[in-house]
Amino acid sequence: MKSLSFRKDLVEVQDELLRFAYKLTTDREEANDLLQETSLKALDNEDKYTPDTNFKGWMYTIMRNIFINNYRKVVRDQTFVDQTDNLYHLNLPQDASVESTDRAYDLKEMHRVVNNLPKEYRIPFSMHMSGFKYREIADKLELPLGTVKSRIFFTRQKLQEELKDFR
Fold first, then answer.
1. pTM of the model as a whole
2. What pLDDT is attached to residue 74?
3. Under 8 Å CB-to-CB from 131, ≥6 apart: which residues?
């Protein structure tokens, strides 16, 4: 009997969920897909629902979480991470003009300044520029988060100071 009541509640809330899905996606097809995915997830997790609680709120939460997870997946899939040793793809010249040689010279100067820094500043800065988050750097180097942030900040200041004539 409990299952019958659950399915009845699920059918009753479908129209409202579809409107909510459309607000999230602004696309009819995606809204229908989101509604279907939400309904399937609810049916799979029927045993986790506590009877006599806010069923509609539970469903909205499931839908919102699915939408957020799908959005993050799309963003993650569209993000290109250059994992070549010399960051070849990030350093591709946009055009072969004088400007690109100037940019290459500036990049060479930046590398020179960073490479002349002590190891404790150079490594966190290089990791940060490679896309690591502050917390990841702190964990990998076994340093306090504040220390990592201040070392990266110091390196940026040093770069600005050393390269002020190259702007």
1. 0.49
2. 82
3. 81
